[in-house]
Amino acid sequence: MQIFLDNTWRQIMTHRILVMLTLLSAMVPLADAAAQPDTPARVLERSEILIQARHYEDAEKQLVAYVGLKDATRKDYASYLQALVSYYQKQDTSAVAFCDLVEKNHATSPWLRKARFLKAQALIRQKKHKQANAIYEAEANRLFAGAMTSSQVDSY
């Protein structure tokens, strides 16, 4: 009986230690990000970490700082993240505005499609279903037009 209790006690303690280490390791990125110098990449990385930790107001400040940097090269992504932060904060009008900013200023961005779908989600939350439907319909037409073209090419 004593051996069983010792093994159970070890398992419980091992589990608790692993849980504590996991929790501590989750806090390390926040501390590391705060200690890094303010290069554009670090500012953007810090904002990503803050979004993941659901510190949206702090992330928004970091994103505004990033967009203000003259040597920032990923402003399309930063604008998308600003839209995402606004959406998470239920500021749908602001989210739509940032999505429009991505579409207007970064027409060739890889984040353009995600920004359009995020805009549609924000419009749905605002009960603007016709505008959201137009976005979904345009994206569906774009996707299916490519599929039809490739199936026609395959038949030749």
Give an account of the 3D structure:
Helix content is 83%, strand content 0%. It is mainly α and 156 residues long. The mean pLDDT is 82.
Summarize it.
With 156 residues, this protein is an all-alpha fold. 83% of the residues lie in helices and 0% in strands.
Report the CATH topology name. Serine Threonine Protein Phosphatase 5, Tetratricopeptide repeat
Instruction: Spell the H/E element sequence.
Output: HHHHHHH
Tell me the CATH superfamily. Tetratricopeptide repeat domain
Intertermini distance: 76 Å
Contiguous low-pLDDT stretches (5 residues minimum) are none
Helix content: over 70%
**CATH architectural group:** Alpha Horseshoe
Helix/strand-derived category reads mainly alpha
Chain-averaged pLDDT: 82
Keywords:
about 160 residues; mainly alpha
Describe how the helices and strands are arranged.
Elements: H1 2-35, H2 40-52, H3 56-68, H4 75-88, H5 92-105, H6 112-125, H7 129-155
